[in-house]
Amino acid sequence: MNFFNYFGQYIRLATVTDVFDILIVAALLYKLMGMIKNSSAARLLKGVALLLIITQLSAVFRLHVVSFILNWVMQLGAFALVVVFQPELRRVLEQFGKVNFNFFKNREVEEDETRLMILQTVDAVSSMAWSKTGALIVFETGDSLEHIAATGTTVNANMTAELIKNIFFHNAPLHDGAVVVSGARMQAAGCILPLTAKFDLSKELGTRHRAAIGVTESCDCCCVVVSEETGAISFAKGGQLKRHLAPEALERFLIQELVHEREDAAQSFISKIKGVFRK
What fold characterizes domain 106-266? Predict the structure, then answer.
């Protein structure tokens, strides 16, 4: 009851500044959760949360030895987390640095450019599937892929079907690596991706498919693969691979990840802000 009385008093004394203060914190937390979702940082945070719960339970049940060890681990863990989360912290700061303050003004233009890029990609992938030309294309959705783009050759050009097919042409110097796409532009080609550590994958899957699974396990992104042996089209997201896709299915997946996901995130955040004012 004391908690509810204190909470009621705080609500009655809240000012417009307090409301904006809460909204800013909520927006930052929402952005942060979106950045680390489906990434290694999210899994590490779950482990830290579980460790905190066990520490509290050991104190409640007076498990003195266990509590002493866990408290000692937590003290050292505060310093270790900075080292463990160093790549994630860097990507978070990079994402905050790339905030677009003209988001609402440019969103319609960006959506049109993204849809055109998807059509060009599907056109190129369909042609390469028919000719059995191997291809590997990574699309940035949440995490920054600049560290992966740095392993290849900078392109920084609009995504066109002709450019994609020329890059992955069998005798082209960049055909063995991956293409990295950020927004609606091709950032780099000939990039090196991390391979998955999974052992239960089909033996039919080659290096391109294992790289697609690996990069989507470690980063919030999606990946398109064309098999050089069979010409089959595959789509990877969150470490999961969908194989033998028709071009129409690939287009739906790309629109869902690159267009609808951004729209839903923005609309969800706006609706939450409206809900606060209505209450």
Answer: YojJ-like (1 (3.40.1700)
